[in-house]
Fold this sequence. Notes:
167 residues; alpha+beta; Jelly Rolls; four-stranded antiparallel β-sheet
Amino acid sequence: MRHKDISLSNFDILKGLNEKQLESFSKKLTTAKVKQGIDLFVEGSTGEELFFLTKGSVKISQKLPLLSEKMATEIRDKTLITLNADHHPCFGENGLLSSGKRIATVTAIEDSSFLKLSKKDLSQIVKEDPKIGVIFLYNLAGIIAERLSKTNTDVLKLTTALSIALS
């Protein structure tokens, strides 16, 4: 199934949906575009959409508070990951599934396009066709589990490095 020129079946979060289900799902998606250097959303803001990156690339960053030599707090952005449309990524699941408070900033590295799914539209999809909801949420759970596993590995590496540095 295609949403305009985008093949939705390429997104891991939609794997296992048949053509009819993808067609139904695609009707709930809206489009967004962001110019290079512009934030799609900012850490701490509210939002309840999941984004599918369909063109371009973005960086996902968080504020990293540092204590400067003068004991004043200095804030820097730390890029967590860069996403490219060629890999068919999705992001924003925290806004979709939880309180709606964004935990990171997403900035376009180049002019970028997105499909987005709102929390309200996901609820409607689940009510209309629970099978789509089960497949979608199962795939989303797998994506979140992979991200958590990577985060755990990164934390262990950092903890090990800090332990060595302090000993």
